[in-house]
Amino acid sequence: MNNRVKIITLWIVFLLGLNCYINFAYAQSTELTGKNIALKVHNRPDGDERKSIMQMTLINRRGKTRKRSILSLSKDYGEDKKSIMFFQSPANVKGTGFLQYEYENPSKEDNKWLYLPALKKVRRIIGSSKNDYFMGTDFTYDDMGKRAVDEDNHKLLREEEIDSLKCWVVESIPKDKGYMYSKTIKWIRQDALIPIKVEFYDKQGVLLKILTMQDIRKQEGIWTAFKMEMDNIQEKHKTILEIKEINYNIGLKDNLFRVSTLERGRIK
Q1: Which residues pair with 6 in a beta bridge?
Q2: 112 within 8 A of 134, measured Cβ to Cβ
Q3: pLDDT (tens digit, 9 = 90+) per residue, 147-195?
Q4: Predicted structure pTM score
Q5: How confident is the model over 232-253, as pLDDT tens digits?
Q6: pLDDT tens digits, residue range 37-85?
Q7: What is the Cα–Cα distance from 200 to 232, expressed in whole angstroms?
Q8: How many CA within 13 A on the CB side of residue 199?
């Protein structure tokens, strides 16, 4: 073999090796991880503004039901979000309002306020109160917001199908050991990037609640879960939320998301 052939051969071997390395590095960089998936869910398009009318149904262990109607508004401010909701019926909860500011920075604590018209008083929800259940539902005050991705360690457990829908199954363990849940396990629908099932485990590692998201379809081009059901396994109590109307990007004014709006007990 002459020198020219040797050089060409060496270059071919080098280029093949380089190509294999690039492909390996690309595969490594694009490999799905629990955190990658959590980021996909966190960043999925859901509009910059949302306005919805919801019906809430509470079902106790004896099967007795109570129904409530809710108006909910929310608006993004960069990576942060502000939202406000008011109960519209029945009469005994009408005018009750909830306002929250959610911050992307996990070191910055979210702000939450509850307005009780019977007392004509705004109560700020702080500290351990965020673990309390909201208005007799199976959602805690902390459940009402979205956790920052970096508040938890995420692990992809497996891929699985639910009702022929491909899902990633991701376990999330809070970095804060004092958090009310020891872990959550989410079944995330791959096409919509919405968790269609979430299991919540208490501090002892025992299953506490199961959240299911149903009737998922596109509204104004945005994947939307029109029904969610939180089943408190330990208390044998259930909360169902159904969206009756929803609109995105409708031009909500900033002054809607203020404590003074809460104190009015309604949206003008």
Answers
A1: none
A2: no
A3: 999 999 999 999 999 999 999 999 999 999 999 999 999 999 999 999 9
A4: 0.86
A5: 999 999 999 999 999 999 999 9
A6: 999 999 999 999 999 999 999 999 999 999 999 999 999 999 999 999 9
A7: 9
A8: 10
Per-residue pLDDT, 128: 83
Rg (CA), the chain: 24
Residue 30 clears pLDDT 70, i.e. is over it: no
The residues facing 53 across adjacent strands are 71, 245
Residues in a beta bridge with 223: 218
Q: How far apart are CA 77 and CA 72, in angstroms?
A: 17
**Burial of 234 by CB count in 10 Å (0-12 exposed, 13-18 middle, 19+ buried)?**
exposed
Is it the case that residue 12 has pLDDT exceeding 50? yes
Q: Are 238 and 232 in contact (CB under 8 A)?
A: yes
- 263 close to 86: Cβ distance less than 8 angstroms: no
What are the DSSP E strand ranges found in the chain? 49-59, 65-77, 80-89, 97-102, 111-116, 121-124, 152-162, 165-174, 183-189, 194-201, 207-219, 222-232, 237-248
CA distance 204 to 144: 23
Domains of the chain listed by start with CATH number: 38-264 (2.50.20.10)
Q: Could you tell me the CA-to-CA distances from 210 to 104, 187, 237, 254 in Å, in that order?
A: 25, 11, 11, 34
Give the C-alpha separation, 44 to 187, whole Å: 16
Beta bridge partners of 22: none
Q: Exposed e or buried b for every residue in 207-227, given b needs 16+ CB within 10 A? A: ebbbbbbeebeebeebbbbbe
Contact 73, 83 (CB under 8 A): yes
